[in-house]
C-alpha cells in the first residue's frame, strides 16, 4: 500500500497545484471586475472606467486598497477562532479545486469519491461561517452566522439529492467518469434528461454560495452585515475570495455534471466537424463562464428572498423536487438500462 | 515509512484532541476539539483503504451531528461553566480514570493472532472502489437493516415535530 | 506496514477517553458528546479489523453505526431541549427528584 511519489512526481504535482490555484485567483479577481461591469450595464450605466483602459486594472486597485486598510479586531472577540474562521471558509472551498478535471487526464487527485469530497468540504466550510459569527461576540454577527449556516445546511440536502441522481445515471462517483458517461449517453449531456435535477442544482448552488437572491446574510440593509460585521480589511477580503471561489466550484460542478465537462456531444461534432480541433479545456472554461454569467445576471435581476421564504423554498419545494427527480431516474434506469 | 508517519500524526492528534475535548470548560470550545478528533479519524479511515467511510464520517459526523450539537448549545445559550464546578469532585474517580486509560493501552497492545481471512481482499476493494464494494454487500446481505435504518432516522424527525408544535392540550410545555 | 495492534491501541484509548469524559463531566451536553466519542472509537476498531481480516462486513456495520448514532443523537438532543425547558439547568447533579433522602 506504499504509494509514495518520487521527487520529480511530487515536484510536478506541486507545480500543477500552484498553476491551478494561481489561475483560479486571477479568475476570481477579474470576476469582481466583470460583475461590476455587467451589473452596471444592466442598470444602464457604465461600470468602473477610470483605472486602466475600460477599467480593467480595477481589481489591482481594490487589492492594493485592501492591503492598506487597518485590521481591527474587537476586544471581546475570541481571538484564535476569530482569526481562523475566514481561513476555514477559504481553505475548504479552495480544496475542491483538487478534484475538478479540467481536461481528460488533467486532474490533481482523481478520487474514487470525488462528488462526495466536494459535499464533505461544503459541510466543513459551514463551520467557518458559524465560528465567524460566534467568535465576534456581537449579537448581530451571531444571529447572522446562524442564519447563514441554516441556509447553507438546508440547501445542501437539495444539492446532494440532485447530485445523487447524476451519480446514479453515470454509475460512478468519480467526476471524470461522470463526464465520460455523459459523452456516451444519448443526449450528450445530463441537463436534458435530468432537467428537474438541473433546476434544483442551479437554485441550490445560488443558495450555497450566499449569492442573490439568497444573499440575506451579507446584504448591507439586513442585520448590518451578518457574520461579516466585525471583520475588516484582509479578513473581509478572504471571505469574499471564498465566496467567489465557491461560485467557480459550483459552476465547474454544473459544467461537469450537467453540461458535459470538456466534451462536446457527438451529434454536434457530426454536424460541425471543425469543432473537434478545439481543446477540451476551452469548452470547459466556456461552460464555466456561462454559469458565472448566469450568477451575475441573476444578481442584477432578482430581488432578495426573506429568510423564512428562503427556508420554506429549500425545504418545501426543492427537496420534494429532488426526490421526484431521483425516483424518475431510478425508474428510468430500471426500465431502460 | 510515509504510512507510519501519517498514522502516527493522525493517532497522536486523535488522542490529543480527544483529551483536550473532554477537559474544556466551555462547551463550544470542547466541541471544536472533538470536531478535530472526528476529522482526523476520517483521515485514519483513508489509511485503512475505506475512502467512502472516511467521506461519510466527515459529512455525517463532522458536518451534521456536530452542527446539530452546536445549534442546540447556541439555542440553550449555555454559558461557560465556572471554575471548580466542572468535574465531579472526588479524587478517587480521577485515579480510576487514569488507571482505566492505562488498562486500555495495555489491552490494545497485546499480540492478537489473526485466524480468519475473509473473501473481500484489499486488491478486490482497490479494484472495485470502496463504495462499490460496500454497495455490493449492503444491498445483498444487509437490505433489511438498511430499511430499518431509514425508519430509525425517521423517528427524530417526528420527535422534533412533536416537540416544536406541541400537543394541543398543554400549550406552554 | 502498520500492525493491527496500533489501530487497536488508538481505538481502545479513544474509548477510554470517551468513557472518562462521560464519568467526570456534569453538563448533560458533554455526556452526549462523550457518547459520540465512544461510538467513533468502536467504529475505528471495526474498520481496522475489517481491513486486517480482509472482510468488508465490519465496515458495513460501521456505516450502520454512523447512521444510528445520528438518530440517537437527534433523539438525545430533543430530550435535552425538553429537559432544559422544564428545569432550566443541565447539571446532572440537580436531577434528583427520585431521591429519597
TrEMBL record, chain B:
GO molecular function: NADH dehydrogenase (ubiquinone) activity; quinone binding
Topology of the protein relative to the lipid bilayer: Multi-pass membrane protein
GO cellular component: plasma membrane
Annotated InterPro entries: NADH_UbQ/plastoQ_OxRdtase_su6 (IPR001457), Nuo/plastoQ_OxRdtase_6_NuoJ (IPR042106)
Subcellular locations according to the entry: Cell membrane
Keyword Transmembrane helix: yes
General function of this protein: NDH-1 shuttles electrons from NADH, via FMN and iron-sulfur (Fe-S) centers, to quinones in the respiratory chain. Couples the redox reaction to proton translocation (for every two electrons transferred, four hydrogen ions are translocated across the cytoplasmic membrane), and thus conserves the redox energy in a proton gradient.
Annotated protein name in UniProt: NADH-quinone oxidoreductase subunit J
UniProt organism field: Thermodesulfobacterium commune
